[in-house]
Structure formats: structure tokens, C-alpha cells
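[User] At your convenience, examine this fold.
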Amino acid sequence: MSENPVITAVTDIPASPDRVWRELTDFAGYASWHPALRFVDVPESVATGTRLRAEVRTGNGNDGEYEFTVLHFEESRLLVWEAGIPGVLVGRHSFAVEPHDGGTRFTDSEEFSGSAAVNAVEPGRARLEKDYAGYGEALKARVGSG
């Protein structure tokens, strides 16, 4: 068992990487497709260092409003944000968009660190993996064959 558990889901989407990226980074629009995230007070532009606030509703007892700090923003390719309580439980969440077989390969991955990471993630690993795969499928349904 890893000290820093990772949850990863890969979804192939029959749409261009630019189309997937536009939807992925339209934070104000998440409420229309993402089953767990609703961003609030969305800034006009997002770059490394931007802080995003979102309501998270997963039904796992950790629902609430969270602030994410964007650590990496590489247009049309990679978005990484982080949130949590340093030293206790921090999630570093990355979203990669890559051309693949005439469409897009979307990789949604989160690495958890801190003293509570293993106990917070491992008991619910199967559910988290299913949820993350569902987020990719929701994005796929949203962009269609764009």
C-alpha cells in the first residue's frame, strides 16, 4: 500500500483536445455536467497560482466548500490543482488532455499525501475509482463528438 495513494481514470473521448479542454476549463459550466463539483466565484481567467472555490458533493462525508490552488496550467494540455490541510490530507489533482486515435485521451488523476492519506483513501478506493471514471464519462457525454 502506497504512502501516497493515487486514483486515476482514463477516458477516451471522440472529440478534439481543444473541445475537451474548453469544457474542462469552463469552471462556471461544471454544474451542467459534473456530478460532484460546482465552482463558485469563478475568476475571469485561470493561470498558475489562481485560487478556485468549489462546492464538492460526493456523499462520502467530506462534502463542503473547498479552495483549490492551481499549481500548473498548460493551455490545452494540463491542469493541476491542490487542496487540503498540509501535513494531514492534501489532494493534488491533475487533468491531462492528449490527442489519441483521432480524439482525446483524458486522464484524471489525484495523488493524496499527508498523515491521513492512506486511511482516508484506501477504505473507499473502489468507490473513488468508480467516481473518477464517472467524471470522465460525464465529460465525454458533455462534449459529444464536438
